[in-house]
TrEMBL record:
Lineage start: Eukaryota, Metazoa, Chordata, Craniata, Vertebrata
Family recorded in the similarity comment: Belongs to the major facilitator superfamily. Proton-dependent oligopeptide transporter (POT/PTR) (TC 2.A.17) family.
Transmembrane spans: 48-66, 78-97, 112-133, 154-174, 194-213, 273-291, 325-342, 354-374, 610-631, 643-664
Gene transcribed to yield this protein: Slc15a1
Subunit: Interacts (via extracellular domain region) with trypsin.
GO molecular function: oligopeptide transmembrane transporter activity; symporter activity
Compartment(s) where it occurs, according to its Swiss-Prot or TrEMBL record: Apical cell membrane; Membrane
Biological source species: Pampusana beccarii (Western bronze ground-dove)
Keyword Aminoacyl-tRNA synthetase (UniProt): no
Function according to Swiss-Prot or TrEMBL: Electrogenic proton-coupled amino-acid transporter that transports oligopeptides of 2 to 4 amino acids with a preference for dipeptides. Transports neutral and monovalently charged peptides with a proton to peptide stoichiometry of 1:1 or 2:1. Primarily responsible for the absorption of dietary di- and tripeptides from the small intestinal lumen. Mediates transepithelial transport of muramyl and N-formylated bacterial dipeptides contributing to recognition of pathogenic bacteria by the mucosal immune system.
Gene3D superfamilies reported in the protein's UniProt record: MFS general substrate transporter like domains
Protein known as: Solute carrier family 15 member 1
Protein's UniProt keywords contain Lipid biosynthesis: no
Basic and acidic residues composition-biased segments: 679-701
CC annotations in GO: apical plasma membrane
Length: 701
């Protein structure tokens, strides 16, 4: 049965792929945060395990291809491994249930190792499942077409790619929202079980949809595993060449021809074609090394940016959705507008040229990221070095005040309720502060440990000048765009302070609370209980990534009188400035990834598609491993320098690839096969391993 000229079975395959990608990307979107906040791992370990998991997801396809080609066939492989996959997602969901080991109901798991063990089992099963079915689904889709449906097949791969990105887009928007919900039996937590449970449910839906279409599929019989034969053929050729290395044996045209004693000509010719393409794959992992940092480095970059888009507040991890949104727009535009225009200009834009352009664009994207990082760095606060101290003065009194930093280092004048920026001094030089206010003065000796920030509140009271020292234990910008808030009580009596749902407790006169963490971009209600009177006021919008000291001065008719002193400025570089680098990287992906699919498809002999596919997915795995190596080996402390390093590496690789592509000659596997068929007819024999035509391709995800 067909619909719009496509086999009906295709629609089941596309829906299946959409659900599976939703499941995978949904789980992956919250994975790093799950490691960091639930399993309490540090940034480096979380990032390392994240990239290791992604690498594993791209190594297992080789296993899936082996099982499908030599044993179960694609249909059964997809069904069985999807069951493994669904179990893995379910285990992940269970592993994130806080109440599983939280016997004392204090809101944190009592036995973290149980959760870690379950998560690792879940992730390994997911990697087996997602990786194992990856080479089979797209290839199984390719199998549904007849040989004369070349155009429909090519269009199918574009639709297939769109379904991948639609699934990825929706899940990257939805799962962070689910994660942010509060849930739990005994104590309310971030809702990881829901964020992992919805992907698990979608995986089950994906499996059911796939099985429903069973009767309509064209199922190609497994053809024996060609990969093992290829390896054996290569191994034998090398061994044989080594045995006959002396001058008396005549040279052969190609080193693989040394396998001709044991293997037939067809296999040798096909292996040559495969090796020719695999050789071109060698530089490709560098592209994926940059591409997959969207989930790690670029998200961390967004945590130092302002996510206020008017009516909506964008969370740093939601910026990743820019990529799938742009893909959904770009794939049709590039196919329908840009490629035809290039053709009209009489430019021969071959697949390998497209891949080269893709690498160049990805390199530019990282240059853009580096330029943006330089702008962000300018807005970041400067914290004191080891031998330095920073001091900020707040005048809490009604009189003007002058503060002299002795011996004659600096003098500042402050009006009532005024405050200075942080001033940096060499710790060894600063000895005392001379405070003059009204007609009084006070000598305040100081001795600090280096590398710290301090705030001093000064007030001219009836009994004399008071200097209240606060130690500011903040040495970095708050993470994830959160804000830090603390209060100073500038009233003559003790008060109780709450902001939103957070209680700051009792504050004595002229004392400060500790800093507390609040979500960025919000306004909260500040409430103070003064002499059993409740006074309140709605806080200012405090942006993202800031720290404020809020001074409580009094209460007029139940309205609280407060003053804000900025300790760390909010993020001022807008998240929208990340869009250019996402745009460049998405353009790179469209010309690189989609073309990679078609190129691998067009250059492979009929029964070798799986080998090339495994090679292509292997480039993604190696790319993720490169991130681990480069990030571990480079001693660059500045993020922008690391971006430049990656851009330079990819540019170098891009030039090497361009040279390799220049010397590549395109082949038509069908012609070569036809020639071999002719020769075999003459010789009257047929290779038992070559059955029906088989078509496969690959997806980046």
């Amino acid at each position: 049965p067909s619909c719009f000229g496509y086999p009906l079975s295709i629609f089941f395959i596309v829906v299946n792929e959409f659900c599976e990608r939703f499941s995978y990307y949904g789980m992956r979107a919250v994975l790093v945060l799950y490691f960091k906040y639930f399993l309490q791992w540090n940034d480096n370990l979380s990032t390392a395990i994240y990239h290791t998991f992604v690498a594993l997801c791209y190594l297992t396809p080789i296993l899936g291809a082996l099982i499908a080609d030599s044993w179960l066939g694609k249909f059964k492989t997809i069904v069985y491994l999807s069951i493994v996959y669904t179990i893995g997602q379910a285990i992940m969901s269970v592993s994130s249930i806080n109440d599983l080991t939280d016997h004392n109901h204090d809101g944190s798991p009592d036995n973290v190792s149980v959760h870690i063990a379950l998560s690792m089992v879940g992730l390994i099963l997911i990697a087996l499942g997602t990786g194992g079915i990856k080479p089979c689904v797209s290839a199984f889709g390719g199998d549904q077409f007849e040989d004369d449906q070349e155009k429909q097949r090519s269009r199918f791969f574009s639709i297939f790619y769109l379904s991948i990105n639609a699934g990825s887009l929706l899940s990257t928007i939805i799962t962070p929202i689910l994660r942010a919900q509060e849930c739990g039996i005994h104590s309310k937590q971030r809702c990881y079980p829901l964020a992992f449970g919805v992907p698990a449910a979608l995986m089950a839906v994906s499996l059911i949809v796939f099985i429903i279409g069973s009767k309509m599929y064209k199922k190609v019989r497994p053809q024996g595993n060609i990969m093992i034969k290829v390896f054996k053929c290569i191994g034998f050729a090398i061994k044989n060449r080594f045995r006959h290395r002396s001058k008396e044996f005549p040279k052969r045209e190609h080193w693989l021809d040394w396998a001709s004693e044991k293997y037939d000509k067809r296999l040798i010719v096909q292996t040559k074609m495969v090796l020719k393409v695999l050789f071109l794959y060698i530089p490709l992992p560098m592209f994926w090394a940059l591409f997959d940092q969207q989930g790690s480095r670029w998200t961390l970059q967004a945590t130092n940016m302002d996510g206020n888009f008017g009516a909506i507040q964008i969370q740093p991890d939601q910026m990743q959705t820019v990529n799938p949104i742009l893909i959904i727009v770009m794939v049709p535009v590039v196919d329908a507008v840009i490629y035809p225009l290039i053709k009209k200009c009489k430019i021969n834009f071959t697949p390998l040229r497209k891949i080269t352009v893709g690498m160049f664009l990805a390199s530019l994207a990282f240059v853009a990221a580096a330029l943006l990082q330089v702008q962000i760095d300018k807005t970041l606060p400067v914290f004191p070095a080891a031998g330095q101290s920073q001091i900020k003065v707040i005048n809490l009194g009604t009189d003007r005040a002058t503060v002299q930093f002795e011996p004659q280092l600096k003098t500042v004048n402050l009006t009532s309720m005024d405050y200075t920026e942080y001033m940096t001094f060499e710790t060894s030089q600063l000895q005392s502060l001379n405070i003059i206010s009204g007609n009084r003065s006070k000598m305040e000796p100081v001795s600090f440990l280096g590398g710290q920030r301090h705030t001093v509140g000064i007030k001219n009271t009836e009994t004399g000048i008071v200097a209240a020292w606060l130690y500011d234990n903040v040495t970095s910008k708050p993470e994830e765009g959160n804000n830090l808030i603390r209060f100073i009580n500038n009233l003559p009596y003790t008060i109780n302070v709450t902001m939103g749902d957070t209680s700051f407790g009792r504050l004595m006169t002229l004392s400060a609370s500790n800093y507390n963490l609040f979500a960025g971009g919000r306004k909260d209600n500040i409430m103070a209980t003064i002499n059993s009177n409740n006074c309140s006021v709605t806080s200012n919008k405090l942006g993202f990534g800031s720290a404020y000291t809020i001074v409580i001065n009094g209460c007029t008719g139940n309205k609280l009188d407060v003053i804000y002193s900025e300790d760390i400025p909010p993020n001022t570089v807008h998240m929208a400035w990340q869009i250019p680098q996402y745009f460049l990287l998405t353009c790179a992906e469209v010309v690189f990834s989609v073309t990679g699919l078609e190129f691998s498809y067009s250059q492979a002999p009929s029964n070798m598609k799986a080998v090339l596919q495994a090679g292509w997915l292997l480039t993604v795995a190696v790319g993720n491993i490169i991130v681990l190596i480069v990030a571990g080996a480079s001693k660059l402390s500045e993020p922008w320098a690391e971006y430049v390093l990656f851009a330079a590496l990819l540019l170098a690789v891009c030039i090497i690839f361009a040279v390799m592509a220049y010397f590549y000659t395109y082949t038509d596997p069908n012609e070569v096969e036809a020639q071999l068929d002719e020769e075999e007819k003459k010789q009257g024999k047929k290779d038992p391993y070559v059955c029906e035509k088989e078509g496969e391709t690959v997806s980046r995800m």
